[in-house]
Amino acid sequence: MTLEELGYNEKFEAFRIEQKLNDFEPGRIIAEHKERFTVKTMQGEYEAEITGNMRFSALSREDFPAVGDWVALTTFDSDSAIIHRIFPRFSIIKRQAVGHFGEIQMIATNIDFAFLIQAADRDFNINRLERYLTICYSSNVSPIIVLNKIDLIDEQRLDELLESIKLRIKDVPVIALSNETQNGYETIRKTIEKGKTYCMLGSSGVGKSTLLNNLSGRNIMKTDLISQSTSKGRHITSHRELIILESGGILVDNPGMREVGIADTAYGLETTFDKIISLSHNCKFKDCTHTTETGCSVLEAVEKGEIEKSTFENYLRLEREKAHFESTVEERRKKDKEFGKMQKKYKKDIGKK
């Protein structure tokens, strides 16, 4: 397998040359297990750890490798290696860590496209789709909506769901498919480009693992039995893993996400709710919150039906969440800065001794 088939490109190679990393081998993180990483190179796969210096100097989760990263490493025997450097990322998909405000959970890096997967029968939630879109836009990742399990609904219901997506979400491809009948698989296979990296985002039980197995032609991910009470397969993926498809595409499977806390989303919200943002420039007050102000162009558009009320309410919800997250991040930055000063003082004192 060549590096290009793993997603390597000229920008990564330019960085390697510029940073004089010629003595190290480039590889891509394909799996992560509690700070131990599986790295794939032209020579094979290795179980790798980061250097002590990388661990000591890390200020946040983003300073550690993640699935999708390109790294510079040295190999020691047939299956072990040490990671010395992380290549610059062109995209990072992340969310708020569940139960830990201000902390980031890395989902995957260097992703070109994200399949936003929802089940057509019971999981469908357009507000959640807008959350995923916001994450994608803030991460520099192109979204593709996948409406799965269409065999569980009739054509009329399918048309209703597709129309509801069309009304709320503009200029995003939508693929309707069934893991059971394979309807729609030809379309999704044509979407996957050689050398490009895709990830799958969705709740547990929407059929991500079955989709991965069908696209790869192998039983890579285990799927549990269908629940009689919910008509859903119980998703048992517990970690992230990067899979090379025979077609040449690269696909990352993720554990199902019950909670999708947005993080660092200024650009993401602007893109997802571009009509609201555009209208806000016409508001009477520059600091308009679009809630009770007189002369608010956004509220006026909602009253006239030009903006759906549900879209507007979801925007306000995500805007409040973003503001809370940003204030919490600022608090954490202050603590990290204090910790950094303590580290420098410690090193200085050690040097004197």
Give a short synopsis of this structure.
With 353 residues, the chain is of the alpha/beta class. Helix content is 35%, strand content 23%. It has helices spanning 10-18, 52-57, 126-139, 155-168, 185-191, 208-216, 266-272, 274-280, 297-304, 309-352, and strands at 25-33, 36-40, 45-50, 70-75, 80-86, 92-96, 104-109, 113-119, 142-148, 174-176, 197-201, 223-226, 233-235, 241-244, 250-253.
Helix content: 25-40%
Kindly give the count of domains. 3
Strand order of the largest sheet: 10-9-8-11-15-14
Tally the beta strands: 15
Structural class: alpha/beta
Distance between the termini: 51 Å
- Gyration radius over CA: 22 Å
Characterize the main sheet.
6 strands, mixed
Strand content: 15-25%
Describe the overall structure:
This protein has 353 residues and is α/β, with parallel strands linked by helices. It has three domains: 4-86, Beta Barrel (OB fold (Dihydrolipoamide Acetyltransferase, E2P)); 92-253, 3-Layer(aba) Sandwich (Rossmann fold), CATH 3.40.50; 266-347, Ribonucleotide Reductase Protein R1, domain 1, CATH 1.10.40. It has ten helices and 15 strands. The protein has helices at residues 10-18, 52-57, 126-139, 155-168, 185-191, 208-216, 266-272, 274-280, 297-304, 309-352, and strands at residues 25-33, 36-40, 45-50, 70-75, 80-86, 92-96, 104-109, 113-119, 142-148, 174-176, 197-201, 223-226, 233-235, 241-244, 250-253. Helix 3 (126-139) crosses helix 7 (266-272). The longest helix is centred in the C-terminal third of the chain and has 44 residues, at 309-352. The model is unreliable at 224-238 (pLDDT under 50).
